[in-house]
């Protein structure tokens, strides 16, 4: 990457460590969401260190989730979730919108689900800890899936031209990609069912497959999340080349004998005038 790009990346990652101490911008929570899909990578940092310390011998399995280092792996895994939880609470404090608290609840439930997962993987078996993990993991998957589709992507609208989508679509010439994204997002959100069978591929291999699928899901998620953000910015005139004036301009008039206030406002002018009145700005 270019030097400026590397600087932006390091600065954005560094700002995550100060979450809660300043207003949250789009790049802050967007970058935090990227790290939420790197649970497999972050949790295995302790595995790499343990393998190096053991000299990469054949007894490497004792460095996994069954080792005494599992609390450290858990902390590294849920660190992005904790950062996003703090960011969501900060956004609620700054804006007063309860939707941010609901979003914070999503990350809180994710932390609980991963704690139950690491605890079960450490002790193993099909006892009570396995059942508790399945319950909390199911709750978190449904919670996160609903937020993905309804809030992050703003889809599942039943009365639009394209069922289950929204009115405005950037990729309108490839409608099928939206339905593929919905289906694949649902399947990967429940990829954890790979851990349920006691017989089958090695558990480390299943974890690797689940981690790769989650990274691919986040890559796909980015396109529709940014699309939804851009459409929202355009709708609120935060991303536009021109802002509608609160009055109409009629270049065909002569010397302006008629009173300007008697001219009908067009649709965009009426909308802008309404916005000015709501904000308490003086009318022009």
From TrEMBL:
Membrane topology of the entry: Multi-pass membrane protein
Keywords in alphabetical order: Membrane, Transmembrane, Transmembrane helix
Entry-linked InterPro entries: EXS_C
Transmembrane segments: 69-86, 98-120, 132-156, 176-196
PROSITE patterns attached to this UniProt entry: EXS
Region called Disordered, residue ranges: 247-269
UniProt KW Transmembrane keyword: yes
One GO biological process term: cellular response to phosphate starvation
Molecular functions per Gene Ontology: inositol hexakisphosphate binding
Keyword set includes Iron: no
Subcellular location: Membrane
Main location, first listed in the record: membrane
A Pfam family recorded for this sequence: EXS
Ranges for domain EXS: 64-257
GO cellular component entries: Golgi apparatus; plasma membrane
Listed name of the protein: EXS-domain-containing protein
Source organism per UniProt: Mycena pura
């Amino acid at each position: 990457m270019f030097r400026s790009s590397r600087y932006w990346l390091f600065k954005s990652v560094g700002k995550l460590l100060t979450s809660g101490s300043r207003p949250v911008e789009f790049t802050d929570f967007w970058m935090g969401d990227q790290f939420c899909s790197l649970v497999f990578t972050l949790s295995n940092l302790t595995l790499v260190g343990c393998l190096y310390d053991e000299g990469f011998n054949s007894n490497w399995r004792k460095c996994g989730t069954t080792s005494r280092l599992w609390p450290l792996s858990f902390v590294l895994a849920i660190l992005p979730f904790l950062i996003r939880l703090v960011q969501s609470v900060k956004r609620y404090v700054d804006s007063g919108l309860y939707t941010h608290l609901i979003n914070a609840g999503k990350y809180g439930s994710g932390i609980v689900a991963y704690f139950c997962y690491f605890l079960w993987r450490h002790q193993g078996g099909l006892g009570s800890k396995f059942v508790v993990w399945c319950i909390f993991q199911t709750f978190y998957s449904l919670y996160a899936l609903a937020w993905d589709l309804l809030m992050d992507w703003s889809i599942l609208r039943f009365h639009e031209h394209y069922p289950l989508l929204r009115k405005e679509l950037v990729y309108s010439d490839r409608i099928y990609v939206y339905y593929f994204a919905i289906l694949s997002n649902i399947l990967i959100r429940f990829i954890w069912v790979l851990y349920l069978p006691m017989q089958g591929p090695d558990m480390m291999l299943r974890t690797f497959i689940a981690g790769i699928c989650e990274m691919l899901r986040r890559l796909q998620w980015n396109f529709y999340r940014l699309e939804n953000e851009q459409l929202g910015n355009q709708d609120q005139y935060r991303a536009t080349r021109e802002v509608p004036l609160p009055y109409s301009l009629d270049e065909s008039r002569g010397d302006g004998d008629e009173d300007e206030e008697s001219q009908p406002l067009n649709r965009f002018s009426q909308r802008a005038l309404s916005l000015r009145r709501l904000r308490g700005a003086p009318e022009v």
